[in-house]
Amino acid sequence: MHRIELPRLGTFDAWRDAARKLAGSGVGFDQVSWCFEGTDATLFDGAQPPLPDKATWQITVPKDFPPLAKLLCASRAPGAFDLAYRLLLRVSDAPSLLRNRADKDVGHAESIAKNIRRDMHKMKAFVRFREVTPKGANRRQFISWFEPDHRIEELIAGFFVRRFGDMDWVIVTPEVTTRFEGGALSQEAVRSERLDLTDETEKLWQTYYANIFNPARLKVKAMQSEMPKKYWKNLPEAELIPGLIAKAEAQVAQMQAATPTLPPVRAARVLDRLHHPDLPPRDDSPENLERELRGCASCPLAATATQAVPGEGPMSAALMIVGEQPGDQEDLAGRPFVGPAGQLFDRVAAKVGLDLQDAYVTNAVKHFKFQVRGKRRIHQSPNASEVSHCRWWLDREITQVNPKLIVAMGATAALALTGNAKGILKRRGKIETGLHGVRVLITLHPSALLRQPDPDLQQKQMAHFHEDLATAARMSVQLAEDN
Amino acid sequence: MTLQEKLALLSDAAKYDASCASSGTSKRDSSDGKGLGSTEGSGICHAYAPDGRCISLLKILMTNFCIYDCAYCINRVSSNVQRARFSVEEVVHLTTEFYRRNYIEGLFLSSGIIKSPDDTMADMVRIARELRHTHHFRGYIHLKTIPDAAPELIEEAGMLADRLSMNIELPTDAGIRTYAPEKNPDEIRRAMGNVRLRKEELKAPTYRGRKAPKFAPAGQSTQLIVGADGSNDRTILQSSSRLYSSYKLKRVYYSAFSPIPDSTAKLPLIKPPLVREHRLYQADWLLRFYGFEAEEIAPDQGTGMLDLEVDPKLAWALANRHAFPVDVNRATKDMLLRVPGFGTKSVGRILSARRNGALGYDDLRRIGASVRKAKPFIIARDWRPGSLTDAENLRARFATPAEQLQLF
């Protein structure tokens, strides 16, 4: 039986050194007993063979093992070191062992590790620093007393170093004192008694604690499961808890019983100003159209979309381009044709020489219609009723811009402009006279091209789209010359 | 008024905001000795109040003066509560001194709307700038964003803060018009859309391969009040899933409407529906991590409300028993996620553990699954539920009658 004594600080490193040598010399897990320095040998340790000088062969472990072993070595749970050593012997043969949580050793180790992590987390949360800066010091100084369940002082020190880099601090636990002074960390294993400390700022903190508490939602058990009573004695706010709980019910009853009061005088004045802002008079200007459109709620789409997306372009444009509806990106940005379909449209238009600077671009329906699928919004085509509701806005845009030619992209635009959504593939490339008496050139919608699954068909339709935009480009040049 | 009196007033006014998260932001620390604070991914709750809520941040209002008149709010213009206002220095002092004593992870600054949205937002941004640039504060900052504020202000807020949030409070536009007539739901959605676009813009790599500064690295969130207007759970969950998909929100918080001092006659005070709030949170998790759609969890038939007696996943399984039992050794991840009693962690562990051989009942227990809940719905190496899956009294075995009082 080997008896290995481990130091209180540097425990894990010492364990690792010993474990490497033992495992590398083929010592079985039942041949080792682990204990802390200064503890007496037990009766069962028996004769103690010396620790091998070095390992006979090299032990290799998967990279998830050392962090787990580190946590096990911090535990006060009986048998944690043995378990760590047993696992070491097993993982060197089966590197994927730790991923099998159904294994008894792994399950046991993980449950110990979970306790250590929780203990560390609670220490990060419940350490309370009290200020002890002497006059004239150039760095502020703080001190804290904390009683962790396990031997986590070494594992946790880095957290406080990273967090409180510009001040000096000391954390005293019953077994270890950790100091951070002038930017240097040091730890010392010494026994200490509980420190009794206070700090002026604690009054403010207690004020905050008492007032952030909502007496109408008393849930004492929920509080205690996260902040067990054993921590209370070091928390300045904890002394308020019994009082807060006792008063809660009366406080709520008082709120209930109070009759509604009359609003203060200034309320009416403030609200009147808010409700009657100085708006410019209503007229047919584009700015006014946009403002009214943003307030439109005449169909249910307004409540689910982000915003109404108005058309864009010069009011004197001879060419108007009408798409279906804003997509995901257009809906967020509030501008038409900025998403993938819009980019495709821009590319093709540039290729065939269609100058979009001179065109007014808009959509048949101004709000985005979609269905939620998991984390994405899936486009849905607007129905006839939504198109006809929204035609009111399209009509006003057409009246204002007074274009000579309108390009209708896709069935929805065709429906809005000609009253007929059918047979787009047959009608494309042809000029029709729309409901507004303006010439309408029908073509496909670029997003239909993007969604076309058949590559041959996609190529063919893309060619048609090129052709149609080229027609539009030719016609708009002609229209400009006619003027 | 002393600082202590102001703090009492302005933290009392802030407690109706449920969010207190300090997690999920980019890593920072002050080990260079030149600043204060760190953020390391997971949040820390430094205390718990007797209402069971975590206290992670110094959650205060800059001021509780407000020109809006939202019926559910303690700070509405028509309320007679005492008013106060912090100076920039006071907020900075409280934040850094609390932080140095390890009371908090950072600041959650909200505000009533004074004068105009732009004025209010500018003052809040000034506090954040002071903390970050003058005091080198590297802890967490959550700024409540005023939707109508100028884009430059929101831009700067996003550069200084870890999280931005805008509270919608009521799940339908009609509800907002009734109870918060000065709020504009379109404006809130548009502002959330802008935050999402800005985040995505900065995420794209620059031409020189430099990392762009992060915009609100812990994302954006919102809050919905439960039980103030008549919306049912289905409406609330649909609204949440729309918010998640549209604006990539990190969280939607649900806050049971709870009594406020000096309440209005418009909204009668009720006992806060805490169980309902809890069920909504569970349902929200199912939406985000378990592949459920809002319509599955809160079906159309009936009241559109979640079952208060059993959790929403169990309720779904009980209503869809034809999909069970599921063989834990063969089922896909998607299906395992739908088994009551299996969390995302347990499912991950089942998937990697079953490579080593078929899993039995005890293996599942060791893995950390709640086998008591799962057993009617699963098949394992040494376990078959038999007629248990379709047993008529199955629901009764799980349901503990929950009592939700409507009145005091």
Main attributes?
heterodimer, A: 483 residues, alpha/beta, 4 domains, 5-stranded mixed beta sheet, 13% strand, elongated, B: 408 residues, TIM Barrel, 2 domains, 6-stranded parallel beta sheet, two-stranded antiparallel ribbon, 10 strands, 37% helix, iron (chain A), DNA damage (chain A), hydrolase (chain A)
Task: Give your account of this protein's structure.
The complex is a heterodimer of chains A (483) and B (408). In chain A, helix 2 runs antiparallel to helix 3, helix 3 packs across helix 4 and helix 14 packs across helix 15. Chain A has 4 domains: 122 residues, no CATH class; 62 residues, no CATH class; 49 residues, no CATH class; 197 residues, Uracil-DNA glycosylase-like domain (Uracil-DNA Glycosylase, subunit E, 3-Layer(aba) Sandwich). In chain A, the strands form 4 sheets. Chain A has a 5-stranded mixed beta sheet with strand order 3-4-5-6-7, with helices on one face. A 5-stranded mixed beta sheet of chain A has the order 9-8-12-14-13, sandwiched between helices. Chain A has a two-stranded parallel ribbon with strand order 1-2. The mean pLDDT of chain A is 91. By secondary structure, chain A is of the alpha/beta class. The longest helix of chain A has 28 residues. Chain A contains 18 helices and 14 strands. In chain A, strand 6 and strand 7 form a beta hairpin. In chain A, 44% of the residues lie in helices and 13% in strands. Chain B has 408 residues and is α/β, with parallel strands linked by helices. Chain B folds into 2 domains: 235 residues, TIM Barrel; 87 residues, no CATH class. Chain B contains 15 helices and 10 strands. In chain B, strands 3-4-5-6-7-8 form a 6-stranded parallel beta sheet. A two-stranded antiparallel sheet of chain B has the order 1-2. In chain B, strands 9-10 form a two-stranded parallel ribbon. In chain B, helix 7 packs parallel to helix 8. Chain B is globular, with a radius of gyration of 23 Å. In chain B, 55% of the residues are buried. The mean pLDDT of chain B is 92. Chains A and B meet through helix 4, strand 3, helix 5, helix 6 and helix 7 of A and helix 1, strand 1, strand 2, helix 2 and helix 6 of B.
